[in-house]
TrEMBL record:
Gene Ontology molecular functions: ATP binding
UniProt feature coiled coil, ranges: none
Protein name, per record: Phosphonate ABC transporter ATP-binding protein
Gene that this polypeptide is encoded by: phnC
PROSITE patterns: ABC_TRANSPORTER_1, ABC_TRANSPORTER_2
InterPro entries attached to this UniProt entry: AAA+_ATPase, ABC_transporter-like_ATP-bd, ABC_transporter-like_CS, ABC_transpr_PhnC, MetN_ABC_transporter-like, P-loop_NTPase
SUPFAM superfamilies linked: P-loop containing nucleoside triphosphate hydrolases
Alphabetical list of PANTHER family matching this protein: AMINO ACID IMPORT ATP-BINDING PROTEIN, PHOSPHONATES IMPORT ATP-BINDING PROTEIN PHNC
Gene3D superfamilies in the cross-refs: P-loop containing nucleotide triphosphate hydrolases
Domain ABC transporter stretches: 2-244
Keywords tagged on the record: ATP-binding, Cell membrane, Membrane, Nucleotide-binding, Translocase, Transport
Amino acid sequence: MLEIDGLTRRFGAKTAVDAVSLAIPGGQMVGVIGRSGAGKSTLLRMINRLGDPTEGRIRFDGTDITTLNGRALRDWRMRCAMIFQQFNLVQRLDVLTNVLVGRLNRRPMLSSLLRLFTAEERAMALAALDRFDLAETALQRADTLSGGQQQRVAIARAMLQEPRIILADEPIASLDPRNSRIVMESLRAVNREGITVLVNLHDLATAREYCDRIVALNAGRLVFDGPPEELTAARIAEVYGVSEAEFAAEAAAAVGATPRPVAIHA
């Protein structure tokens, strides 16, 4: 169970996240929605402890995450994997090595620095790539892949951390509709293994399609928390400041028609 209690983050006079409280049972797939600047990324970064809260607490299975430092903090970031909008791959390295980076916190410092990965770890990385239909790219440089492929490499890297939670911060924001669907199918397949997934999304239709639960922020405040079917037109207006019809028209104009589902190995 991930528990967030009164979480607040201020940057000077600006409050990015304002007293947010949530309880997220293990195995849920939660979509975090809201306009740009609503506090979505700041919330996820605090959960991963890439940023510290000004006030409030984060607990996971009874452990106070906000007090961790040193090795305990590194262990938390291993169990709580982060996926970023811009992939965060080492572009000059091959795909296999980028995936193996997910094992570094589980290895002695010297072997980590020298990237002396075991045969078992290499087999794990290849299996992760194969799962996301990327095995044939293992020896290619990361910068030769498309955006959608790079994001799936980032998911494979996260899986090598053997995480309990995956935090995905706008993972499809820079992708076309087809690749967006492939990445979301990949995240849902991971979630079906029992891994909790929190994913920041701009697109309301995507959140409704893939997520068990939707959390909405507006100006850092929690304004909705519930199943997708309870996100009514009135709630949408509160979150986005527009009607559902207006929001749908804006989204359609921005990304075009949504493609048909694409199969990903479970």
